[in-house]
Amino acid sequence: MAARIGFLACPGTLPASPERRSDAYEHDRQVDALRPALADRGFELVEIDWAAPLDQFEGLALVMLGTAWDYQDRLKEFLTRLEALEARGIAVCNPPQVVRWNARKTYLQDLAERGAATVPTLWLDDASRGDVLSAFDRFGTDRVVVKRQVGAGALGQHSFTRDDPPAAGWTLGHPAMIQPFLPAIAEEGEYSFVFVGGAFSHAILKLPAAGDYRIQSMFGGIDTAIEPAPADLAAAEAVLASLPFDDLLYARIDMIRAGGTLAVMEAELIEPFLYPLEGPGLGTRFAEALEKTLETKVYYQ
Ligand SMILES: Nc1ncnc2c1ncn2[C@@H]1O[C@H](COP(=O)(O)OP(=O)(O)OP(=O)(O)O)[C@@H](O)[C@H]1O
Ligand SMILES: [Mg+2]
Questions:
Q1: Of 12, 56, 275, 293, whose Cβ has the fewest other Cβ atoms within 10 Å?
Q2: Is 299 a residue whose pLDDT tops 90?
Q3: Residue 269 in contact with ligand 1 by CB distance below 6 A
C-alpha cells in the first residue's frame, strides 16, 4: 500500500472550505507540485486540517506542516498537536522543536551567535516613540523598521523616518524588534533560497511595488526566479549551516543585502511557501528527500 503523507492545512487553505482565503492558491500550487511527484514514488499526499480529530491522522507515515497558516494565534495548541502526532509514530516535518524555536524571531539572535550574517536589531519588550528616536542614533540612520517578534505577513509592522516619527505616547503593544531600514529592499529586492533535504533547490528574488518596501504579494510584491551568484548562494548555505538543526526536510532562507553581503532576514522553517512555479524540480527533489527521511526517520525526538 502507498505510504500516506499528510499535508497539514487549515480552514483558510483547504479546498472546498467555506472559510478559504483569497491567497489559498498558494496551497494549491504547493499541492499540485508535490502530489504527482510523490505519487511517482508511491506516496499518496493527503490534505488535512492540522486541528482535525486525531483519529483522522490514522495511517499517515509523515506530516509536513504545509499551509497551517492559522497556527500563529494558536501556537501552544499547534505544538501539542504535533507532539501528539509524533507520539503516534508519525514523523513531523519540520519537527515541533524546530517550530518552537522558529516561531519567535529572537531565533535570529541564535543565528548571529552561531556566525550567520544578520541585520542589526534592537530587541525590546515593547517599542515606544523614545525607542524609535534612539534607534535612529544607535544605527546612524534616518529610517527604521519596527516589527513584532512574533508575526508574519508584515502584520503590525511600521517604518518610521526622522521626519515622520511615531506620535507621543505611541507603542507597538507587542514584544518588538527595531532594525535600520535597508534600502536594498527596493533597489535590489529580498532573496528566498529554498532548500530541500539540506540541498539547495531554487532561488527567487522578490521586489516590492513602487513606493512600498514590503515584498509580500498582498502589497503588490513581484517574485522572479533567479540563478543566484555563487557568493550569494554561499551566504544562504552558511545560514542553513548555522541552524541548530540538521536534516530539515525543507527550509527557506530569506536574505537581504546589508553592506555588500547578504544577511538573513528570516529563516522560514515552519510553513514557508516554497515557490513551486519558480522551482520546477521542487516536487521531485521533495519526493526524494521525503523517501530518505522516512528511511532514516531522522527527526528530533
Ligand atoms: N530592515 C528592513 N529593511 C527594509 N525592509 C524590511 C526590513 N525588515 C523588513 N522589511 C520588509 O518587510 C517585509 C516583512 O518583514 P519580515 O519578513 O521580517 O516579517 P514577516 O512579518 O515575518 O513577513 P513574512 O512572514 O510575510 O515574510 C520584508 O519582506 C521586507 O519587505
Ligand atoms: Mg519575511
A1: 56
A2: no
A3: no
